[in-house]
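chain below, 449 aa
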Amino acid sequence: IHLAVGHDPAHEMTISFATKYSNSEGDNAPLGGVHIGLEEDKLDRFVPEQEYPLHYKEKNPDGKIYNSPYQHHISIDGLEADTTYYYAIVVGHRDDGIEALEKRPIKHSHSTATEDVLSATKTVDGGDQRRRRLLPPHYDGSELPCIEGQLVRSFKTAPKRGEGPVSFAVIGDLGQFSFSEETIRHLRDNKEGIHAAILAGDISYNEFDHRRWDTFFDMIDDTEIFHEIPLHIATGNHDIEKREDGNVIFEAYETRFRMPQVQPEEREVFDFPGLLNMDAPSYPLPYDWGNAYYSFDYGLAKHIVLSAYSSMEPDSAQYKWVKKELKSIDRSITPWVLVTIHTPLYNTFDKHHYDPQIVAAKENIEPLLVKYYVNFVLTGHIHAYLRTSKVAMGERNDKGPVHITIGAGGRQCSAGFQNEEPEDWVEARDASFFGYGRIDIKNSTHAEW
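prediction:
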């Protein structure tokens, strides 16, 4: 289960969840819906699914076909701003119809023994039928109980545009390793006041084994943090996931998440022979719209999420869109502008200086960031931490944004420095600890990192 804001975060929320595994025979997906209300014991509105659940199939490294769980994305509108809502997901048989689903009972507290309709009941690799296992897994929560189906949970909508304060967690290159778990647990234990989280790419590190997407979400579910705080994502190189003998890209990324899309995805096959080097992928890839790039207003902040792996050339759809988006911002309402892109434009470390995505972003996107006075640029990709001064075109400049690389969410923390002495625009740099960051936007003039 995870949340994402809609086009109007003060009034819309999307609830995403997985149900049973699909199969090659084309069985019917479960029918999903959400009960929601202002009181925990009075969920007086029912929202049925608006579209048939998504699923996909891929070939795992062992040659076996993987069929994903069905992915449900249910959008809820008509909400009040800055308001706590309680919700419960309900799932039933499609043949029984929506009326039967609407009457399905819900739970108001955790139980230790329940038939969990949200858990996958198909064995992935032998062992426990009640929990997904990988041998060996990146994350193994098989000794923990499955998340409760039909349990009442809660979220809070965004304040109205222009209102605050608002706070955002920023994570990069998370994965599902021991330090990833520490990062997520720390976020869970310190969630007070955080309104939403931004994950700046390289999400699950599935290494072409799509069962690891399932165990990644097991890790997320076991903390429950994104059952109540919206999670927003950017494309990373390890999210491309092109197989050596395949030509499909970003399949899981598009299927498992639902961001506030500008328009539906335009994604073509990528006919590249052999295995695509995930550390140095081709540029650009044939992928636009959908979850690739999008924006949303949240109180005092305007968030713009870009795709480093879609074209950023001046004649591209992404470039034209982001230029129009930046130009249209009313800074009297949303005075803070935050841009997220996986690849850093500024880099004090000894790798990733000449990635074609970085070259394109510096050449085409950075002038827009400076021209329209973007405040923060949030990146990952390099497994380390960097915060710059306000910088533009390689020089300290009060008209430029602060660039923050926060790529040590869990995968690694090992980057060396390019130079012993930090560059003039470096305010802080480190490659010795894992974690995430937090931006507190206090009012129209002050923010704290």
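The longest strand covers residues 13-21. Residues 158 and 353 are 37 Å apart (CA to CA).
thats it, cya
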